[in-house]
């Protein structure tokens, strides 16, 4: 079960990243004066929100069963990363994405909707990229 969750969490990472990149690119492009807020935009932003929340659920399950999460070994880099840094960074990023989506839903004009998505999803994307256990950063991490 652990191995399956790790592979699902790692594989869905790429879908979430592509959706976040697309959402940020579309939002910034439309924020700069292109056409308004469409139903396609709303769906892209919603699917992005769903992808990052699915990642959150998989990550929470892994948090409780992973051997890499160990509060008694925080002095070691690998355990500290997964126990504190990865978890805190991803939670903050998902909160930013959620705030951006909910605030954009309440906004009245298209430019404000796109600006809110661009800012909050963009900040969430940067934090996610900084918190991913990339193979060149963390010993024992894989691309998939």
Main sheet summary: none
Rg for CA atoms: 16 Å
Q: Which percent range describes the beta-strand content?
A: under 5%
Percent range of helical residues: over 70%
The computed structural class is mainly alpha
Number-wise, the strands total: 0
Number of helices, where a helix is a run of at least 4 consecutive DSSP H or I residues: 4
The SSE string, one letter per element, is HHHH
Low-confidence stretches: none
- What is the residue-averaged pLDDT? 90
Report on the architecture of this protein:
It is a single chain. The chain is an all-alpha fold. The protein is built from 4 helices and no strands. The mean pLDDT is 90.
List the defining traits of the structure above.
single chain; 144 residues; mainly alpha; 4 helices
SSE topology sketch:
Layout: H1 2-31, H2 39-65, H3 77-106, H4 110-131
Concise synopsis of the structure shown:
The protein is built from 4 helices and no strands. It has about 140 residues and is mainly alpha-helical. The mean pLDDT is about 90.
